[in-house]
Amino acid sequence: MPPGGAQLTPQQIQMLQARRAQMMGAQGGMPPGGAPAGAAPGMRPPGMGKGGKTPNFHPGGEKGKLHREMGIPEGEKIPAGRLEKAAHSGNPEMRRDAIRAQTMKKWHHTGPKGD
Q1: Closest by CA position to 84, among listed 93, 95, 68
Q2: pTM, whole model, 2 decimals?
Q3: For the chain, which residues make up each domain, given as ranges?
């Protein structure tokens, strides 16, 4: 019901129904975030995967990227002071990588995989 409790006219109702039908895919479109109208229940829109892990996602980011951004050779450790300074950098990408590195320092790392 519109604000103020006013009743809709038949023309307004017809216009709203037409707009809703268009949004829901009656004209070949897709509703926001859903499957085409008349599709089988549970059908995903084209291009949407089944779920699970993203194939190119790396929780630690790209290996050695922060070292390259800071100009530190990959074999050396990044000093804590420089890591802290990078975490407050004006460069959002470097800041994100430095915060990720600080977080990863807290993880309980083991040796090579399988150890």
Answers
A1: 95
A2: 0.46
A3: 65-105
